[in-house]
Amino acid sequence: MLPPPFVKQMQALPGFNFLDFEAALKTSPPVSIRLNPAKTKGEVFSSMASPVPWHPMGRYLEVRPSFTLDPLFHAGNYYVQEAASMFLQEALRQCIDTSKPLRILDLCAAPGGKSTILADFLHHGREDAAGAGLLVTNEVIRPRVNILKDNIEKWGYSNVAVTCADPEVFGTLEDFFDVIVVDAPCSGEGMFRKDPDSIKEWSPANVDLCTARQRKILASVVNALAPGGLLIYSTCTYNTRENEDNVAWFAATFDLEMVPLAINDQWKITSSGLGYHFYPHLTVAEGFYLAVLKKEEGLRKKDQVPPRFKNITPLNKQRVEEAKRWVRQDRGELLLYETINGEVMAFPHAWEKEFLILDTALKSKWFGTQIGAFKGNDFIPDHGLALSLLASPDLQSIEVSLVNALLFLKKEVFPLPTNTPMGWTLVRYQGSPLGWIKVLPNRMNNYFPQERRIRMETR
Ligand code: SAM
pTM here? Predict the structure, then answer.
């Protein structure tokens, strides 16, 4: 049952058809995915997919398949994402000029759905590792950073820094970002259909708490937005206090202006004059709100670039030569380095200055793609390399059937084709890499990460 104060609040919205809204909450939530343009060559679920109107790679599925049992899900060929969230792409497309290199911050990023949209946006039509920009994807709650890292790794790009910092820390990076996305923690009213448990957590007191927290988050990062930069604010709630009231307060307090979006009438997205709403009785999606604000134009403060990295060491010449054998050489110059934990990472040389600044400002961070580690002189490739678009096309690989792909994803052994050569081998399903095995004279070792292995019955 819907909480009475919530019902009252929705009924008070001007021109709002509460009965239709209430009826829509009793229907099944739609299922949607977003294809990875860098990895999918065609449709993944072609027979039953229809397009999400506001995202070229978004698809609705008629039935919910078991994503866990689909190897292409593990390969990062698509992301399971609520359709309304994909509207971020349309806001980016309408408001952002990608002819200049961009620095984008996704401040509240886990599990990473919006970050994968941002990463695609930066790479639109570009094959190089640097893309059209650098994405910093941040999650303050430490236990949620792993899922964010996994999803970023699956998506495959290397012009990304994953960080774990309080929003206030970003406030110290004056004028640094061209775009900041704040997909704020909220009262979750838009999730009432998909996750009925969220109804129990709703209360007017929680709305108060969320409103105050959102203001604190917004105020703490405004300093990091460059003059003329865009702030994109979104929530999955309908609540005027968390949406319009907060945006109006933010614009007035920090002198930002609202940026209007052109909305196709057929999409049935509702403009409130201070942002855009998705309501489940009007759009095939859950509840969502998004607004774009622009900081006043002005002179951007010059970057203070530290002379050297604090926590990472460039690889020595011999190690660079070995590491280079594993990565593509045709996607732009890469900086290869080792972290204090001995992980070998690769990131686009073009963003070295930005990484130097972030390295000094932030404690917990991972730059670029983890490609492996040295054990003595041997290079042990990482799962991140297998899923990365940086992996060399010359790496040894085998194509496996669905049955064997699932055994691989369960971290079990499976029969190898006769004459499979010894050594590190990429396991591919329908051409997409899933991870590594090492073929030895009498056996194989399965290097699929233990924490990501499929635990459910596959037969
Ligand atoms: N952007 C994500 C996506 O599209 O996959 C969803 C983000 S979710 C709506 C909000 C995130 O904000 C959560 O990951 C949550 O852990 C984080 N969060 C919670 N409290 C926060 C705070 N005080 N400051 C910044 N982020 C916070």
Answer: 0.97
